[in-house]
């Protein structure tokens, strides 16, 4: 099967919309992906063009998107690229959608807490309090020294 698989790194641009359909759970949100490049004249990083994708998630992934993501979150999305062209009001419009296979927070730009979900859980709109694995000043980068962490409640 010839499908175009992509990995996009960007920010959640719209609040995810979760729906329970006859075929199962579905969620969608817009993803903003901005390229960055080094400008030698300014001697600084500069933002390039921003592309927007509509990300679609189904079943358990949709349920987890509904409870885990909010506007502004840095995420990585992997999935099938679908480019659609349609005619609206006598004009051709092209959109790029990603049928997501995997979505996760981009940990190069922050931390995240992970919690396994049961299939019966339904997403809520309120943020949930999850444990935050706090790193203290005495910790080193050695993973062996970080094995015994105590969760700290985020308020």
TrEMBL record:
Any Gene Ontology biological process: DNA replication
Family matches, as Gene3D superfamilies: Nucleic acid-binding proteins
A Pfam family assignment: SSB
Record-level Gene Ontology MF annotations: single-stranded DNA binding
InterPro entries noted in UniProt: NA-bd_OB-fold, Primosome_PriB/ssb, ssDNA-bd
Alphabetic keyword roster: DNA-binding
Region (Disordered) residue spans: 112-155
Superkingdom of the organism of origin: Bacteria
UniProt cross-references to HAMAP family, sorted A to Z: SSB
Subunit and interaction comment: Homotetramer.
Protein name: Single-stranded DNA-binding protein
Species for this entry: Streptomyces luteolifulvus
């Amino acid at each position: 099967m010839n499908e175009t698989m992509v990995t996009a790194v960007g920010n959640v641009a719209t609040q995810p919309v979760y729906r329970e359909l006859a075929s199962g759970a579905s969620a969608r949100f817009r993803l903003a992906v901005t390229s960055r490049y080094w400008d030698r004249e300014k001697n600084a990083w500069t933002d390039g063009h921003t592309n927007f994708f509509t990300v679609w998630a189904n079943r358990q992934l949709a349920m987890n998107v509904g409870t885990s993501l909010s506007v502004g979150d840095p995420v990585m999305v992997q999935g099938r690229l679908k480019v659609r062209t349609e005619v609206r009001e006598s004009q051709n419009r092209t959109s790029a959608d990603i049928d997501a296979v995997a979505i996760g927070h981009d940990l190069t730009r922050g931390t995240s807490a992970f919690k396994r979900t049961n299939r019966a859980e339904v997403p809520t709109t309120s943020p949930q309090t999850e444990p935050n694995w706090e790193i203290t000043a005495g910790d080193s980068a050695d993973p062996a020294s970080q094995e015994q962490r105590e969760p700290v409640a985020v308020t």
